[in-house]
Design a protein that fits this description.
single chain, six-stranded parallel beta sheet
Length: 219
């Protein structure tokens, strides 16, 4: 359901990065298409199945037999770190993040830490006090590990958090963590969200502090 004219109370907010706070579609297409073509794979399928997942998990799921998965994953990660062309802020993301107390939000991403910091800076977004990246958890999304770790890092329970996500794997991870999930619609998810609460972007959202609660107001 597209959210309109509602208020949501929570203790803390957990944001996915790619497709949620910033658009990195162009460099991701370049990196994954290059890798897919090397092995005769369908780039569209690779991109779709890799959305929201750690690079190493995507490689394990998609690479043909005989591929040195560890080596390829490291090379693709470096390829992405070196390419910031076309990375930009999702509408409303910067204003919302800057309005939040630093101890009430975190970024929880399937990207590695270096790539995450490069993209956050390229998009002109504030660096979070807490960043949970691919290196921090044994299991990537759709495992809930990353969001549970983010909640613990903010000293709250996950069921008092709102998770913002754009990818099916991340949406499932948020649900499994017990958080409320708000999807940011993307070309890969729009029209497939069913009863999931969703927004087109983060514009039109404001936050205020009332006692122990963050109050999100959505126009």
């Amino acid at each position: 359901m597209l959210l309109r004219n509602v208020q949501i109370r929570a203790s803390s907010l957990l944001f996915d990065m790619d497709g949620t706070l910033l658009n990195s579609h162009a460099p991701m297409v370049r990196a994954y298409t290059e890798w897919a073509n090397r092995y005769g794979l369908d780039p569209a399928h690779v991109l779709r199945e890799s959305q929201g997942r750690r690079t190493i998990d995507s490689m394990r799921a998609l690479a043909p037999p005989g591929v040195d998965i560890e080596s390829d994953a490291l090379a693709l990660m470096q390829r992405e770190r070196d390419d910031m062309d076309g990375v930009f802020e999702i509408p409303g993301a910067g204003a919302l993040l800057r309005s939040l107390p630093a101890d009430r939000w975190a970024i929880v991403t399937s990207a590695d830490r270096k790539l995450a910091l490069n993209r956050i800076q390229a998009a002109g977004l504030p660096i979070p006090a807490l960043l949970v990246s691919s290196e921090d958890v044994p299991h990537g999304k759709p495992s809930p590990d990353c969001f549970l770790l983010g909640a613990r890092g903010l000293n709250v329970s996950a069921d008092r958090c709102v998770v913002f996500e754009d990818a099916p794997a991340g949406i499932e991870a948020g649900w499994r963590a017990g958080a409320r999930v708000i999807a940011i619609a993307s070309p890969l998810t729009q029209g497939k969200l069913g009863n999931q609460d969703w927004l087109n972007d983060l514009s039109g959202m404001t936050a205020s502090v009332e006692g122990n609660d963050l109050v999100l107001s959505i126009d």
